[in-house]
User: What shape does this take?
Amino acid sequence: MKVLLLGATGLLGHNVLRRLAAEGHSTTAIVRRREGLRTLPDATSVVVGNPLDHSVLCSAAAGCEAIVNCAGATDMSMLHRSDYDPANRNLCRAVVEVMEQQGIKRLVHTSTANTIGYGSATEPADEEAPMEPPFTASLYATSKRAGEEVAIEAARRHPDWHVVVLNPGFMLGAWDVKPSSGRMLLAAYRRRLMAAPPGGKAFVAVDDVAAAAVNALTKGRSGERYIVACHNLTVKALYELQAATMGYRQRVLTLPAWLVAAAGALGSVARSLGIRTELSLNNTRQLCVKEYYDGSRAERELDIRYTPIEQPIKEFHQWREQQKR
Assistant: This one.
């Protein structure tokens, strides 16, 4: 299958690109800068340009049978919803328009698990759980939810299309170029003493999400969302697991929620003055929530098998070491 891939330079995009090639698909990737690609498998062509430019998107999509959208704005320091909408909502609209114009009928759109209400350790949330605070006030999460709605509405309008929305948890693994989610691992790596917020996340190997994205080209139900995550851990537990996996000793202390919130309040004051920072009251509230999800629907319907989380932790650090050589 000939596939157009958006967001190829990100953590998930790099892994999807490699998996598409491994499974025999030919891929066209739109990138803003060619040097942003750290891997270029055979049967991959590269278009340099802005995917929000209609002419660039149309040209790159010509002859493609499917589109995988891994693009997104994730920088939590941005100050306004309008900073997130172009990549997280408007691009999906543009993709749907191009599909309608060119007769493309397959779309895999990547969102986030935070558009779904979180559960608990004993009752993790499934895809039917409505979005909950503090994520209903998140500029990032609400913009991603708006993108999902565009994709799902397109599936309703076009019953002959195959449209699948993926809602990954917190992804870890190799090819984290920036790094993005790997910053959480680096923050605690080989420190003798580490402080962690009281919340938790649903972690997942990025390669498992890449497998779900490629499988979703032909599997799953059109118009449905699929949580892709399975390892529900506190941040403290993740740090302890990283230390055990990488062979060092570490003591991890859990910060009280009020102290984390106080730091966020200071950040919110700075943001109100136009200073970009990831610290905000809402962002720190998210760090105090245990975001636990049930990813079994993706396992059943997208035919994936979840990897023990120790493996992507190890792969992340091994890949980082290789990049230094």
Residues 81-102 form the longest helix (22 residues). The radius of gyration is 19 Å. The domain at 2-178+203-228+292-307 is CATH 3.40.50.720 (Rossmann fold). The chain has eleven helices and twelve strands.
